[in-house]
Design goal:
The protein is mainly α. The chain has four helices and no strands. The protein has helices at 10-29, 33-40, 43-58, 63-90. Helix 1 packs across helix 3 (43-58) and helix 3 (43-58) crosses helix 4. It is elongated and about 45 Å long.
């Protein structure tokens, strides 16, 4: 449970993190932003982003830093899942 009240704009912030992360990956790796956004807005992904964002706030980070860290965590998780899927496809 967060050590502080939930931000009033939590849903907007989480949505923005998902959108900016999807667009960043799409731009950097020539991926389809809409395809990525669909995956980053599943209930499991939104829960992951929310927990990462709130964890950053609980650690005393500014909302911008907490959002940035949550986006980086999402990229790492996406990369790990993608690599695991590729390994299973190859084998």
């Amino acid at each position: 449970m967060p050590a502080h009240p939930l931000p009033a704009n939590l849903a907007d912030n989480v949505g923005a993190i998902a959108a900016y992360t999807a667009q960043s990956l799409a731009d950097e790796f020539d991926k389809d932003a809409e395809w990525l956004l669909a995956r980053f807005t599943t209930p499991a992904a939104l829960d992951f982003i929310t927990r990462a964002y709130l964890s950053g706030l609980d650690q005393g980070h500014s909302p911008a830093k907490a959002a940035s860290d949550a986006g980086v965590a999402l990229i790492h998780m996406w990369a790990e899942v993608t690599l695991t899927a590729q390994e299973h496809t190859i084998l």
